[in-house]
UniProtKB/TrEMBL annotation:
Native source organism of the sequence: Pollutimonas harenae
InterPro entries assigned: HotDog_dom_sf, MCH/BMMD
Xref: SUPFAM superfamilies: Thioesterase/thiol ester dehydrase-isomerase
Superkingdom of the organism of origin: Bacteria
Source lineage: Bacteria, Pseudomonadati, Pseudomonadota, Betaproteobacteria, Burkholderiales
Protein name: Acyl dehydratase
Length: 154
């Protein structure tokens, strides 16, 4: 092992996982610049996201962030867990539990809830329960992606 150099940021293999395995990601603050860039890129011109001034009639007075941006950042935070080992994303149910605002800091708490070997013998399916949590400990999004992951090479 001493002569072998490991790569940092290499994802989990399917066979490294077990039911109930849990981990969390590092954190990321969502800034005003993130909101502006995402709204411009996606063309989500809903005034809730695009209007910084006339907010008195809006249900959320602070600058809200689209759940699509929060979900995208959550998947980005999870990238190191499946770098080089993730093969496919099949589906997920997604539930928005509460608003995310500009300057909120999020991380993802992940738990393995389903493991099935694949039909080819060198990969398997894994479903996780992912909770996107803000700096107050509140879950703002919860989703359960099913992915195809490589098994450890023989």
């Amino acid at each position: 092992m001493a002569d072998q150099m490991m790569t940092i940021g290499h994802g989990f293999y399917w066979d490294d996982l077990e039911l109930g395995f849990r981990f969390r990601t590092v954190s990321r603050t969502i800034t005003e610049t993130d909101l502006v860039n995402f709204v411009n890129l996606s063309w989500l011109t809903e005034e809730l996201f695009a209007n910084a001034h006339s907010r008195e009639d809006m249900a959320i007075k602070a600058r809200a962030v689209p759940a699509a941006l929060v979900y995208s950042y959550a998947e980005g935070l999870l990238t190191p867990s499946m770098q080089h080992t993730g093969l496919a994303f099949f589906n997920a149910e997604l539930d928005v539990k509460g608003p995310t605002l500009v300057n909120d800091t999020i991380h993802v708490e992940c738990e393995v809830i389903e493991l099935r070997p694949g039909s080819k013998g060198n990969r398997g399916h894994v479903r996780t329960l992912n909770r996107v949590v803000n700096q107050h400990g509140e879950t703002v999004i919860q989703y359960n992606p099913l992915r195809l992951m490589k098994m450890r090479p023989q």
